[in-house]
Structures are given as C-alpha cells and as structure tokens.
C-alpha cells in the first residue's frame, strides 16, 4: 500500500478526494497514535516507539507516510508535528468530543450505539 495522495485511488474510494485520502492515511494502524504522541513535544524515534508501543518497522512506515503527507517532520530534537499536523489535531477535537458523547450513548444501549430497526415489510432475497 503506497502513500495516499489526493487525486488517486485510495482505500475505500476511487475519487481521490482530500477527505478520503486523509481518512485512508489516518485509518492505517498506528497513524493516529503517532500524531497523538507528538502533540506535545518532539520525540526521538526510540522514545516515539516506546510511547506508541509498536515495533520499529511499523513506526518507520507510518513516519514515512506522515512525513510524505506533510503532517510530521524530523529535526535535530526528534520528530514533531508540522503546522498542518497541529491543525489536523485541532480539527479532530470536535470529533473527539462527539466520540465521547457517542460512547456514553453506546453504554446506555448495552455497549453498542442504537441501530435503526429494519422494516419487516421487506422480503429477504437469497439471490441478492
């Protein structure tokens, strides 16, 4: 799987729209965790690996993708979020608030968010 780019096919979408590219990138294992751990201060590779609890190969892959996407950069003091990386974290704060609200609603529904009820009027088709 290559580095997702705007205007190209990405996982889950053939449109290449920016939102789909970002969701593909952030949906990769460990990507959000890397961004989360870098939200405070720069970290060396080893410190970031320990903070993320991941293996060096996966971390190297995610850092390569996040750097190529302009969200993370590397300097003498370690890896850090770029201006775009920091603005992404700010943009995700409302999603975090929504997720907390959703989690509370999910708990009151027995651990899962409420699902819409299906109409019994539909006939099931075994050929569909």
From TrEMBL:
Coiled coil, from the record: none
Biased composition (Basic residues): 117-128
Region (Disordered): 106-128
GO MF: DNA binding
GO biological process: regulation of DNA-templated transcription
Protein name: Winged helix-turn-helix transcriptional regulator
Domain of life: Bacteria
Keywords associated with the record: DNA-binding, Transcription, Transcription regulation
Upper taxonomic lineage: Bacteria, Pseudomonadati, Pseudomonadota, Betaproteobacteria, Burkholderiales
Alphabetized Pfam families for the sequence: HxlR (PF01638)
Record flagged with keyword DNA-binding: yes
Span of domain HTH hxlR-type: 25-104
PANTHER family, A to Z: HTH-TYPE TRANSCRIPTIONAL REGULATOR YODB, TRANSCRIPTIONAL REGULATOR, MARR FAMILY
């Amino acid at each position: 799987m290559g580095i997702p780019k705007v205007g190209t096919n990405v996982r889950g979408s053939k449109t290449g729209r920016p939102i789909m590219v970002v969701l593909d990138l952030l949906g990769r294992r460990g990507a959000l965790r890397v961004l989360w751990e870098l939200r405070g201060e720069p970290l060396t590779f080893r410190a970031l690996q320990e903070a993320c609890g991941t293996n060096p190969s996966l971390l190297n892959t995610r850092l390569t993708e996040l750097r190529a996407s302009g969200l993370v950069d590397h300097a003498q003091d370690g890896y850090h979020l770029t201006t775009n990386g920091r603005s992404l974290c700010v943009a995700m704060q409302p999603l975090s608030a929504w997720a907390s609200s959703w989690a509370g609603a999910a708990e009151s529904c027995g651990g899962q968010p409420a699902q819409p009820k299906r109409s019994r009027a539909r006939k099931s088709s075994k050929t569909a």
